[in-house]
Amino acid sequence: MTRDSQREWCVVDLLKTTAEYFASKEVDEPRLGAEMLLSHLFGETRLWLYLNHNRPVSGHELEAFRESCRQRLDGRPVQYITGEQYFYGRPFTVDERVLIPRPETELLVEHAAGLLSAGRDSHPEGECRVLDIGTGSGCIAVTLAALLPFLTLSAIDRSSQALDVARANAARHGMLSRMDFLEADLFDPDLASRFSRPFDMIVSNPPYICETEWEVLQPEVRRFEPKEALVTPGGIASYQAICRAAPAMLKPEGLLCLEIHADGASKVCALMESEKFREISVAKDYAGFDRIVSGRLGV
Q: What is the domain class of 95-297 according to CATH?
């Protein structure tokens, strides 16, 4: 966005000019980015921008917006600039300590919630416990807690900084009393010993990018998002560790529900089969790629 100290800006003109400037600089999703930054400036929704398109923008607001635009032009993701990402219709605090939640992960939550609800219909009494491995921002665990009031959840991450973000998001959505957080590594061979009682489900969106793929990811991902939340040896090591540990942490006939790399379904299914899981199924994302693998522990 070019500087014009004499011009009086209103919302619609500022939005149009910013989107065009972002496009000229080949910024991803220029219109959406401009809308998100401008709505964040006012503390309002994107719809509000269009309902108040003639609202004047003060000099102080304009300078704050320009600073946000400078960060975006430098490649910083919009979500880290605003400090927020919506997930399953709820706002989650995010920053460089955690991965930005993706829309595909909403399918993991939807799939897991469906399995848990079906199980609750069959066994309406008793405690229902879920473990979220590699919780990051806490978006999966917090959303499941909000959707299914009968759940109690444990969320683990090897990053204490990520756990701070997850706790804050649990508190933000009033779910803290039904959740506990533990600093733990999914590669710890004694992970199961950290829990005194088994779980009804383990859910995870673990790192699944192979090291060789890292350099071809979008620059803003490589520069700003935590690599350890994305990359795992061979692209499969996280699944190997989770599948090995899961039987010792699940109740008989407990469920394992995993988000996967688009081409990883066959490998993950084979790993689950090797650890005596059955009723293994694969669900696709909106683009038609394999995205979720789930199974039930055999008895």
A: alpha beta
